[in-house]
Amino acid sequence: MSIFRSGLSLVFLLIMSNQSFAQAISKDYQKNCAREQVAEHQGVKGKALAEEDFTAYCGCQAEFISKNASNRQVNELVMNPKAKPEWLKNIEIKAMKACITDPKMTT
After folding, report:
1. What CA–CA distances, in Å, run from 50 to 21, 35, 53?
2. Is 0.85 topped by the overall pTM?
3. Dist. CA 29–CA 82, nearest whole Å
4. Better-predicted residue by pLDDT, 18 or 94
């Protein structure tokens, strides 16, 4: 019985730590993503865009990365959220394709 409780506790801790990494990626990544999007889209629509205009897109992209990156990659992003390693660029391209076709995304 004691081994079962220890095992269950360990599984719970692993799940919780993975969620906290995902949240850390999500928060920092979304801020950086929104800043980058504002800079890339300056003057495109004829109106000034704000970081809030990219909340849904950057949230979708952060969620995609959290689900598709390995634990090592997640740790790398948590340690340096502004880093742009090659693996991240590849996942971002896939995320962009997934998020732009997401029905929740509107322009």
Report:
1. 27, 9, 5
2. no
3. 8
4. 94
State both tokens at 96: 């962009």
- Both tokens of 63, joined, read 């969620």
**Residues 25, 79: Cα–Cα separation, whole Å:** 10
User: How many of the other CB atoms lie within 10 Å of CB of 10?
Assistant: 10
Secondary structure letter of residue 30 according to DSSP: H
Contact assessment for residue 47 and residue 97, using Cβ atoms and an 8 Å cutoff: no
Q: How far is CA 89 from CA 4, 50, 85, 103, in A?
A: 41, 23, 7, 23
Query: Residue 41 in 3-state DSSP?
Result: coil
CA 99 to chain centre: 12
pLDDT tens digits for 8-26?
Answer: 444 444 444 444 445 556 6
What is the rounded CA–CA span in Å between residue 34 and residue 3? 46
pLDDT digits over 25-53, tens only? 667 778 889 999 999 888 776 777 889 98
